[in-house]
Amino acid sequence: MHTPWQRLLIDRVIAGAAHGGGWGYRADASACAEPTAVACLALACHKVEPQRWVHGLESLARLQCSNGSVPVSAQVSSPGWPTGLCVLAWASAGSMTNRRYQTHVESATRWLLATRGRRLSPMPDIFGHDRTLQGWPWVEGTHSWLEPTAYAVLALRTCGQTSHPRVREAVRLLWDRVLPGGGWNYGNTRVLANTLRPFPATTGIALAALAGEPQVLQIDESIAYLTNELPRILSPFSLAWGLIGLTAWLSRPPESESWLAQCAARRVQHQANPLEDALLLMADLKSYPLTSVPDGDTHG
Amino acid sequence: MGDTGTAHATCAGGWKLSRREMLGVGGGLLVGGGIAAAFRQWTRHEHGLRADVFIGKASDYHVDLTGLIGEGLKTLGVTRRVIRGKRILLKPNLVETAVGLSHINTHPSVVLAAAQALRRLDAREVIVAEGQGHRRDSQLVLDESGMGQALDGAKITFVDLNHDELVEVRNTGRRTSLESLYLPQTLLSADWVVSIPKLKTHHWVGVTCAMKNLFGVMPGVVYGWPKNVLHWEGIDRAIMDINATVKPSFAIVDGIIGMEGDGPIMGSPKSVGCVIMGTNMTAVDATAVRVMGLHPYGLDYLTGASGWLGPIHEHNITQHGEPIEPLKTRFEVLDVPHLADVIEG
């Protein structure tokens, strides 16, 4: 059974699909890879019947380039940073459909494993992080940053590649980018004289990607940072990713449901935003939502 | 990318840029003092470009900013006839927020005052739009900066430029290798784009003001968070390309409380007490740099824009409102080699 706000957001996401399939960053916008992948995952996690969202997986398949990458949208042929999220959607949500997306997953995985952030020479006087470690960039040919690296790790782990050297190096990169007091931002720790500040969303995303990895020193500080920050946050993107990250580390606060309900109540006063609505739905799952979707009956 | 000069900056993306390289002048040519003087004499002409800049005093954010901005618009010839019926996009600087640190971003009072002043001139619609460079989460940025509450109260729409519909346009600047730029549909559909930056130092390029503020119109879904593609292309060159392509119509600089030191994020508040306005970004920025007690010719993107996108030489900028000298307040700049020219000229 869904709570009233879950039902409302599910209906909004379903109704907010773009013409021709998939979802955009706004309900009236053209389809983009990221909101489409996350919407499919969220609806699948909430056991919504596949016919309501399989068009999203199909639109991602149509969007996929011959090299395996999935660009931001049909209007932009690169960059391919959403590819990791699409693998998650095809591999996880796709398992609930009659159509299998194995060839798309394999092609995308090959692209992920062949794509890496630019390795740079160490400049310890200027940058706090190890610039020689390679994860994934937002844009091919540039440096590795937190979100695309985390999405790629999540995708490759879902495909059974946890031990792949690229994943192991990316995990080292994520740990290397944690701030001394805990938490992550977009992927810098210190620049010139100052240590930078953490952000809730990227801290949650990093924690989600590192789920199941051996604990390091700053994990407690990172969890504490999120636990302290989230009660004041009414923004869906940050609250949802923060809770997903805490859930991944079995640190989900008991007040989470009320925070989400409050955030959703505010959210529905605004124009539908499929990505944010879907993230709130994923964050409401008490079990970690990014490894597989639950078995069981689906709901219309 | 070659490094042919002594003044250069290096950032997370690993780029290096020298002013000489950008100007296409050989590395040794500017070494001699006589040649440098000749260079300055040449730059003084700036292809005949001239611009007007208005400076208004504002001791804090509680003064009548709408009236002050209205006075500046009038002085600069921006009348009802110019604004009537236009769809206007205000672009504040909201790069990253931190609770209690309001000096990082454009103050909401300045944005509201600008909107009100332009509405009084019969603008058809005024919207606020930003594509933050560090934080993806626009709602959180709006909440933490107080901008969201302010805009809601004034019934002003905010558009997230990082996740807008995209249009590929020709890069008319071509100082970077990018042949085209992806720009938000909302930006391109505006009749008037107004850059509303915070007056801040910048640890890579020296100063961030009206021109650098336009990094925030570049969509993160294409350029990343941070917008690392533009770093690799050279921040200074990217600033020029974006300004040449977007062609903003007006600038209103929040110089009431700025930021010095390790800007644009980690610096300290610096009280100046002024608002700087103008129709030419290059002239506005050069004036702002002078108010900060720094040297416009020490900024690569200003020397690169000089005589092309606008004037930076003080002889080519007609000053209105308050004069610069009484307001001049020396901003501390990081003591790093690549910013030496900004301090010393």
Brief summary:
The complex is a heterodimer of chains A (300) and B (345). Chain A has 300 residues and is an all-alpha fold.
Overview of the molecule:
The complex is a heterodimer of chains A (300) and B (345). Chain A is mainly α and 300 residues long. Chain A has one domain: Alpha/alpha barrel (Glycosyltransferase). Chain A is built from 12 helices and 2 strands; from the N terminus they run H-H-H-H-H-H-H-E-E-H-H-H-H-H. In chain A, strand 1 and strand 2 form a beta hairpin. The longest helix of chain A has 13 residues. Chain B has 345 residues and is α/β, with parallel strands linked by helices. Chain B has a single domain, classed as Rossmann fold, CATH 3.40.50.11440. Chain B is 32% helix and 23% strand. In chain B, the strands form 3 sheets. In chain B, strands 3, 4, 5, 6, 9, 10, 11, 12, 13 and 14 form a 10-stranded mixed sheet that branches. A two-stranded antiparallel sheet of chain B has the order 1-2. In chain B, strands 7-8 form a two-stranded antiparallel sheet. In chain B, strand 4, helix 5 and strand 5 form a beta-alpha-beta unit. In chain B, helix 3 packs across helix 5. Chain B starts with 7 loop residues before the first strand and ends with a helix. Chains A and B meet through helix 10 of A and helix 6, helix 9 and helix 10 of B.
